[in-house]
Amino acid sequence: MNLKAICLGAFALSILSGVSFAGILDEPDSMRPFFTDASMKTMKPKAEFKKAWEAMSKEKRGAMMKECQDAAMSKPHAEFCAELYALRGSN
Fold it and tell me: Is residue 79 one of the residues assigned to a domain?
């Protein structure tokens, strides 16, 4: 068996078993600027949310938007992703 087949099989198994890979939406340091509390349960008001978004690098913003477009990755962050979509629509 070659290495490519093993890696592909492991990836498929992780997808089928529900194991997800952590992304930028799961990184506390990336998400903290958008929340008012340490538990990251209360998002900042729209104006402050927009400032935090604009202060991020284009690479991080792109990664966040990409993850928000992925149904599996965005599900636990639905409220946050909804704010990003609204912000994108206002530009």
Answer: yes
Residue 70 has what DSSP assignment? Answer: S
Asked if residue 68 belongs to a domain, the reply is yes
Looking at the structure of the chain, the number of domains it has is 1
Grouping H, G, I as helix, E, B as strand and the rest as coil, residue 35 is strand
Q: What is the pLDDT of residues 1-54, one digit of tens each?
A: 566 665 555 555 455 444 456 799 999 999 999 999 999 999 999 999 999 999
Tokens of 39: 């538990």
- The whole-model pTM stands at 0.70
With respect to residue 13, please indicate whether it lies within any of the assigned structural domains.
Answer: no
Buried b (16+ CB within 10 A) or exposed e, 51-62: ebbeebeeeebe
- The length of the chain is 91
Expressed as residue numbers, the domain containing 27 is 21-90
Show the tokens assigned to 56.
Answer: 């991020």
6 assigned to some structural domain: no
